[in-house]
Amino acid sequence: MNPAQYNGAPGPGTIYTQEFTEVLASTDLQAKLPGGVLLAQGNGVIKKGTVLGKVTATGKYIPYVSSATDGSQAAVCILDNDQDTTITDIGASAWIAGIFVSSKLTGIDTAAKTALKLCYFV
Predict the structure, then answer these.
(1) Interatomic CA distance for residues 119 and 75, integer angstroms
(2) DSSP character at residue 98
(3) Contact 107, 50 (CB under 8 A)
């Protein structure tokens, strides 16, 4: 870096990039789960657009898996921001209604689409 390039002031420093993933096809008709969800610890970073299921025994949410038997086999909502559950449970907001781009969602399948009755998929 040439200091004269910035008139002696520090340069721009390290440049970081951030990927923005938009899962909503439209901002019309969207609704979030009132009060949000409590994501269970130990699921690492859960990405925006992940379909969530609710574990019956704890009432906490984890990524939906259709073959599960703990309650999370029923899709309930879609996470609206990346959340790190590595160390602790964490509160988050999630959509229960909206128009979504199926290819941008994680864990979406035919059963989840059926369960998410207020969601439309394109």
Answers:
(1) 11
(2) E
(3) yes
